[in-house]
Amino acid sequence: MPSITARYPELRGKRVVITGGASGIGLATVERFVAEGAHVAVLDRDPQSAQILGKWAPLEVLVTDVSDPAQVTQAFATVKELWGGLDILIANAGISVRQPFLDISPEQWQKVVSVNLSGIFYCSQAGARLMQTTKRGTILMTASTNGYRGHAYYADYNASKAGVILLMKTIAAELAPWLRVNAVCPGYVLTPMQRAEYTEEMLDAVNQSLPLKRHAEPWEVAALFAFLASDDAQYITGQCVTIDGGETI
């Protein structure tokens, strides 16, 4: 990962919540916003998240399962106590399980949808309620190119990400003009979750199928989040911004 140069002075001092911030895209996004000078609170269900993120102190780490509305409510109450409000929410936490459609159990379906879709709903609602007091804020969600293209072996994940895209558009329409809401739709990103599901041969096959011949790095997605949170993107709302190395062309 290249060294990070702060590019958006308006992000300095902003109060930012990032979910799923202990690994992958979330971890890279934490690093980017800390480098921009933002005040960052991370919501992650990993009990080791405080140790993982310790090198970026001061940083608030709240162990939270975003699929549990009571835990989400408590986490955002803590954010309010700490900062008095919220400027930016990056609802990123998500999971996937590579599984043939006919083998997906009700338990797996519920787990994936609960984290990927319900978790973003709970966090977005709690975050928007904090932002409503100042009538100003930005919510960014991690969706996926899987949300508008069918990918085999990910029926539950695909459905959840399609839901995120329409949830984003609905909130953006309903709470404008004071709230901007957008989704980042990555294609293949070289995260620990991706490495856990794909062999090296599968990763190489994917790379050869892409116009840019490689996976995205998590920091590249984090850079897009920083742009969308900045004043340079102040006329962008209700959009699913694709970052996929040309996959969907």
Structural overview:
- This protein is of the alpha/beta class and 249 residues long.
- It has helices at 24-35, 49-52, 69-83, 106-131, 155-175, 192-197, 200-209, 218-229, and strands at residues 15-19, 39-44, 60-63, 88-91, 137-142, 179-186, 240-243.
- It has a seven-stranded parallel β-sheet, with helices on both faces.
- Strand 2 (39-44), helix 2 (49-52) and strand 3 (60-63) form a beta-alpha-beta unit.
- The longest helix has 26 residues, at 106-131.
- It is globular, with a radius of gyration of 17 Å.
- The protein starts with 14 loop residues before the first strand and ends in a 6-residue tail after the last strand.
- 44% of the residues are buried.
Question: In summary, what is this structure?
Answer:
Helices cover about 45% and strands about 15% of the residues. It has 8 helices and 7 strands, in the order βαβαβαβαβαβαααβ. The chain has helices at about 25-35, 50, 70-85, 105-130, 155-175, 190-195, 200-210, 220-230; strands at about 15-20, 40-45, 60-65, 90, 135-140, 180-185, 240-245.
N-to-C terminal Cα separation, in Å? 27 Å
Major beta sheet, strand line-up = 3-2-1-4-5-6-7
- Cα-atom radius of gyration: 17 Å
- Please give the number of β-strands: 7
Number of helices: 8
Low-confidence sequence ranges: none
Strand count, sense and barrel status of the largest sheet are: 7 strands, parallel
